[in-house]
Amino acid sequence: MKPQNSKLKIQNSKLRLAVFDLTDCEGCELQFLALREKLVERGHSFEVTNWRLLDGGMAPGPFDVTFIEGSPITEADVAIVKRARAVSEKIITLGTCAVFGGVQSALPENTREKSLKEIYGGKYKTNTRAPRPVSYYINVDIDLPGCPINPNELERLLSALFAGKKFEPVHHSVCLDCKAAGNVCLFIEEGFCLGPVTRGGCGAPCPKAGLPCYGCYGPTEDANLLALKNVTEQYHGPENLKNSLELFFRPTDEYKEYRLKEKDKRRKHGA
């Protein structure tokens, strides 16, 4: 994940915001509604000039800040993100689909065509491409992952933008969120949880409900996935571990590095 960009230079008295959605469930966009009362209080500070979910107009730009939710999978999607980059001072990817490619990118690219035919039939033709993060096509200034994003993190981001301050992303793992919430450690209790290698900021809602972390915020910058495998494989099982890691981690650099280390380890041991 790239370093977050510097302060925003506001050209007008109000921040001009835009929101674009691609292939997604729109759950991250709906987190704006969780902040509706606070946003109304700050209504003098910004105006949303482009958002399909609103009844307002669809301005062509320019925009001070553009939020993009979802992963680009069509030529039209790619055109949207490139156009957004051209007319926006700052691009913010909203949610794991936009930041990493989302759960839809868990399907290996070399099996995608076969899987589509198995699901939709041999005559099915698609005009879509393999899901990729928005950063594959354009430069992104700030990533805000989550499935969905945490409204508290969104509020923190918006507050930084409104105040003209630099946004500082979360660097700790979900384990710190769990400690703060007083959750029982499922890594110890159940023998498996992705919390130690997953970026925090979510507030640990899954462990709070007794469910292991699924890694939807993506890996931490220093995620040691090979160490996680060595410790948890005997409890979780090799296939379950593989499926758990690939659900959200497959497109990330950390996962690709882990796979290389794993292959190298097997080669050295003659496996």
Please give a structural write-up.
The structure is a single chain. With 271 residues, the chain is α/β, with parallel strands linked by helices. The chain is built from 12 helices and 5 strands. The chain has helices at residues 27-34, 36-41, 75-87, 96-100, 112-120, 151-163, 174-181, 186-189, 205-208, 225-236, 238-249, 253-268; strands spanning 15-21, 46-51, 63-69, 88-94, 142-144. A 5-stranded parallel sheet has the order 2-1-3-4-5, with helices on both faces. α10 crosses α11. The mean pLDDT is 88.
Largest sheet: 5 strands, parallel
In angstroms, what separates the terminal alpha carbons? 32 Å
| Largest sheet: spatial strand order | 2-1-3-4-5
Question: Are there runs of 5+ residues with pLDDT below 50, and where?
Answer: none
Provide a compact summary of the structure.
By secondary structure, the chain is an alpha/beta fold. The protein is 41% helix and 11% strand.
Notable features of this structure?
271 residues; 11% strand; globular; single chain; 12 helices; alpha/beta
Per-chain topology:
Elements: E1 15-21, H1 27-34, H2 36-41, E2 46-51, E3 63-69, H3 75-87, E4 88-94, H4 96-100, H5 112-120, E5 142-144, H6 151-163, H7 174-181, H8 186-189, H9 205-208, H10 225-236, H11 238-249, H12 253-268
Parallel strand pairs: 1-2, 1-3, 3-4, 4-5
Helix pairs in contact: 10-11
